[in-house]
Amino acid sequence: MSDDINALIRREYAAGFVTNIEAETLPPGLSEEVIAVISAKKREPEWMLEWRLEAYRKWREMQVPQWAHVKHPPVDFEAISYYSSPKSKDDAPKSLDEVDPEILDTFEKLGIPLHERAKLAGVAVDAVFDSVSIGTTFKEDLAKAGVIFCSISEAIRDYPELVKKYLGSVVPQNDNFYAALNSAVFSDGSFVYIPKNTRCPMELSTYFRINELNTGQFERTLIIADEGSQVSYLEGCTAPMRDENQLHAAVVELVALGNADIKYSTVQNWYPGDEDGKGGIYNFVTKRGVCDGPNAKISWTQVETGSAITWKYPSVVLRGDNSIGEFYSVALTNGYQQADTGTKMIHLGRNTKSTIISKGISAGHSSNAYRGLVRISPRAQGARNYTQCDSLLIGERCGAHTFPYIENKNPDAILEHEATTSKVSDDQLFLCRQRGIDEEKAVSMIVNGFCKEVFKELPMEFAVEAGKLLEVSLEGAVG
Amino acid sequence: MLEIKDLVATVEDKTILDGISLTVNPGEVHAIMGPNGSGKSTLANVLAGREPYAVAGGSVRYQGQDLLALAPEERARAGIFMAFQYPVEIPGVSNMQFLKAAVDAVRAHRGLDELDAPGFMKLAREECKKLKLKPEFLKRGVNEGFSGGEKKRNEILQMALLEPSLALLDETDSGLDIDALQVAAEGVNALRNAQRSFIVVTHYQRLLNYIVPDFVHVLAAGKIVKSGGRELALELEEKGYSWIE
Ligand SMILES: Nc1ncnc2c1ncn2[C@@H]1O[C@H](COP(=O)(O)OP(=O)(O)OP(=O)(O)O)[C@@H](O)[C@H]1O
Ligand SMILES: [Mg+2]
What we know:
The structure holds 2 protein chains of 2 kinds. Chain A has helices at residues 3-7, 32-41, 46-60, 101-109, 139-144, 152-158, 160-166, 177-185, 426-434, 439-450, 452-455, 460-473, and strands at residues 23-25, 84-86, 123-129, 132-136, 148-151, 190-194, 203-209, 220-225, 230-238, 245-248, 251-257, 261-268, 280-292, 297-304, 309-312, 315-318, 324-333, 338-347, 353-362, 367-376, 384-393, 399-408, 414-423. Chain A is an alpha/beta fold. In chain A, strands 5, 6, 8, 10, 11, 13, 15, 16, 18, 20 and 22 form an 11-stranded mixed beta sheet that branches. In chain A, a hairpin with a 2-residue loop joins strand 3 and strand 4 (132-136). In chain A, helix 3 (46-60) runs antiparallel to helix 8, helix 6 packs across helix 7 (160-166) and helix 9 (426-434) packs across helix 10. In chain B, the strands form 3 sheets. A 6-stranded mixed beta sheet of chain B has the order 6-9-10-3-11-12, sandwiched between helices. A 4-stranded antiparallel beta sheet of chain B has the order 2-1-4-5, with helices on one face. Chain B is α/β, with parallel strands linked by helices. Helix content of chain B is 36%, strand content 29%. In chain B, a hairpin with a 2-residue loop joins strand 4 and strand 5. The relative contact order of chain B is 0.18. Classes of the chains: A alpha/beta, B alpha/beta. At the A-B interface, helix 9 and helix 10 of A face helix 2, strand 7, helix 3 and strand 8 of B. Bound molecules: adenosine-5'-triphosphate and magnesium ion. Magnesium ion binds next to helix 1 of chain B.
């Protein structure tokens, strides 16, 4: 590959600005006292604090996982602050009118206007700034349909029965090191409940922003789709450019009851670090859904372009008969980014079906790994899985790896696996340039073509955004 | 239009074009013939600015400017079009999207607005029809799974939409069946006019029955060893290349 292309792999990170607001940040370090303070700040009931402490005690017994295909210096968990909130008069703002205008500006700059006049049409947004949800739009409209969409902190106070029943039901406290940490210290996140036989009247979206220095972000999302209901949920994330690495360890739990359908889309654009690999977010996330009834369906679609390190495996437990799990992923790494991402499809019910389409794009010095597990239990008569893993390499210094694991305990199951590795070839680039198309546009066109099967799963507005994001993320990949 | 003087081109320090001089005036069609490996594709590639071919000597002027100083996309926008001997596939990028990006880039250079999508689609469908290509063809990935002959007709389609000033056709006739050859030749002839020039590389004088050239040149070991008119091709067919040496 020509040097031109290597020169193209310089990027500009548009979301890298810092907002100057006064914040209230806990001193670094973690202890039972710190957890008690977090819980008190959020005015949580006693049971919630107990739950956190239980998780904390489990976490202290656990080891940092070492199996992922990523390298980084050990994270000093005592150097992180576990809670930061924009300083406002009285704890959390009551309405968007009370939110610091600087913060509203921040979201506006990111293309997420929250105020009445400019709300995104047809999309309800919950905006999380550092550790706190600063507001949710379209609440009333949703309430009319019986849909609950609020911050998890509010849900703990206002819907304790639902939270008690489902929190930790999909991702147990001690599921893994980072999930345990999250369970102990999670600060905010979104909560969704869709009642029986209800189609959520609009797209729901949470937008996460890390601003404070040396602060970890540990959000917790819980989505419950009751029988026969349907919801599409979008998640977006950015962070300022900082020289230090910041930790993001979220947990997302999805529960789809019988005949319910959850579509969860992520466009992850955390700060990836600079050209030399300095700074960036460590994105260690546990996402899992359970199809807990017949004919339930959970579909994960993710476009991962950011973060210094991504460690993330959105998974589906297919417990209900005839339930369906899907995973569509585009993971782009550039510069010195590292991604180890994929999915787990756990087939428990009869005639369960899963589809995995993974597109990894590596440029620069980056490393991109797909790791997937398909497990078919003895009971899962008639189970089917289709897996397709495609890797695209741009330049000579990047790497792509595939780790597909299959555990099949049912001889009737049908499993198909396809994998390809290709390169953006000089010949393809020359064809484009010979037709008058400049190199940068050519690379982005080729990459977008490669991702087409995944992009078509995204909601329309997101698909356009994802395409643009790839273009920006590849900026500098050809000169 | 095009003035090539003593052009020497190398690949990995190996000389492939060894002093080529050729002048192409507006409206002329030049056919280039010659044995395998004589440098025909290399000549087209060097004119289009492809790597890794390096120019080690000589000059090329195109419409009054130094062609060799331009990047490949600048040459394309200035009206140079190359139909590839071996067109590559770009999976997932629809032919339509690709064609529109190309036409928009060239139009932008000429100071013209982007065509709106429906307008472009109409135009592309019409051109498809002329080349006896089904309209579904536009929705498929660029050359993705196209047959050899379809790939070649796709090159002509691109040429028709881009309306170049100088077209370099590298063995566009190879791999075409008799009917397709005629269709492709008609596509070329429809574009012939007093301003537009063509350099047509071919192994078969049959093509020249359809696209009648003004000049025929024989390339051997990186040099033009003989030039003549239409009749030279017939003579070559009869006697083979050894007759020249
Ligand atoms: N990229 C390259 N690297 C190394 N050698 C090359 C390269 N391109 C061309 N050559 C060599 O240069 C010589 C001329 O090749 P070229 O493709 O121009 O021939 P041609 O006349 O088009 O042949 P054909 O009739 O078979 O298409 C050949 O010996 C070929 O092997
Ligand atoms: Mg050739």
